[in-house]
Amino acid sequence: MEPRAGISKQDIREQIWDYMESENLADFPRPVHHRIPNFKGSHRACQNIRDLEVFTRTQEVKVDPDKPLEGVRLLALQSKKTLLVPTPRLRTGLFNRITPPPGANKDMLRKCATSQGVRSFSVPVGLDASILVDLVVVGSVAVSEKGWRIGKGEGYADLEYAMMVSMGAVHEGTPVVTIVHDCQVVDFPEALLGDHDLTVDYILTPTRLISTGCRRPKPAGITWSKISREMLEKIPILRSLREREKRAGKDVTLQAEHGSLLGPASQRPAAPSTVRRPQDASLPGADSPEAACSPLGGEGVPATVCVGNLPRDARISDLKRALRELGAAPLQLTWRGLRHRALLHYQDLAAAQRAVSCLQGLHLGASALTVALARPQKDK
């Protein structure tokens, strides 16, 4: 399958996800939408890494925790290599080292390679630990034979690599491998990529081993101007790295407003197909029930917007993606999924009012969301 002209990253993701589901190429967990997709034949694709000399000679290998990479994690353990796996969403650090119990047999190693095993048989690796990663293995949603990669849109693989550069754990020559289904190897324009996007040197599929010969530079470190204050608050190790680079005299100025490692607006993924925004939608008033969520600030005082009528199966990532695309990303988002609403916190009333205007008629799936400034609370 080949992407159509004038396509965005998110269009490519949706095409791949839809195709894998419709052709029954996807494997557990399903549906594969908004994931690094697992696929039938992933174990066979992983076995091909044994044909790479870079894997044979590696001592320390970093493998993402995605399901289709499970076979590579198992091979690394069976080969007695040091296996490093990123912590989920980088909440508690950058890496965990997988440590099978002494005398672990093949079945136990297989368990250690699963997501449950990663949680149960690992120890955190500190920022000051002496690590030199010889090989990086990442999942992808789409990849070109030229080595250009598209992930699921959250930017964690790109950020993890940039953080490893900052730690001195990888360098420009460290090879990067991705494991995908043959249908995920597609051609797309280089213009879709940003400086922060990670490229790959090898692509392994169930039927092919592709050496990309990619010459596009990999990220040279953390681009702090693309890091939001919200992201910094969520990732403790990122704060530590920022302090370290600040002491070294580097420019660590953060992004002026909320965002993520998604590149310029022209390169950001479009809102998913479940999100639509009619032009003739009416704007809910401040007296709607949703407006009574939390206080509204005055000039220079933080203000809140309440988004209501969220569908039962809505994901916070869907809403965040739509907010980014519409230019209304808040400083902070409070998710109240059980009450079918979310609170968007902005730096002042003017920013909140702009967000309300931008979000007129926002839909998630078939649900038309209500959007209103939160009603101010009376002083006690």
Automatic annotation (TrEMBL):
<dbReference type="Pfam" id="PF01812">
    <property type="entry name" value="5-FTHF_cyc-lig"/>
</dbReference>
<dbReference type="GO" id="GO:0003723">
    <property type="term" value="F:RNA binding"/>
</dbReference>
<dbReference type="InterPro" id="IPR035979">
    <property type="entry name" value="RBD_domain_sf"/>
</dbReference>
<dbReference type="InterPro" id="IPR024185">
    <property type="entry name" value="FTHF_cligase-like_sf"/>
</dbReference>
<protein>
    <recommendedName>
        <fullName>Methenyltetrahydrofolate synthase domain-containing protein</fullName>
    </recommendedName>
</protein>
<feature type="region of interest" description="Disordered">
    <location>
        <begin position="254"/>
        <end position="294"/>
    </location>
</feature>
<dbReference type="InterPro" id="IPR012677">
    <property type="entry name" value="Nucleotide-bd_a/b_plait_sf"/>
</dbReference>
<dbReference type="InterPro" id="IPR002698">
    <property type="entry name" value="FTHF_cligase"/>
</dbReference>
<dbReference type="GO" id="GO:0005737">
    <property type="term" value="C:cytoplasm"/>
</dbReference>
<keyword id="KW-0694">RNA-binding</keyword>
<dbReference type="InterPro" id="IPR037171">
    <property type="entry name" value="NagB/RpiA_transferase-like"/>
</dbReference>
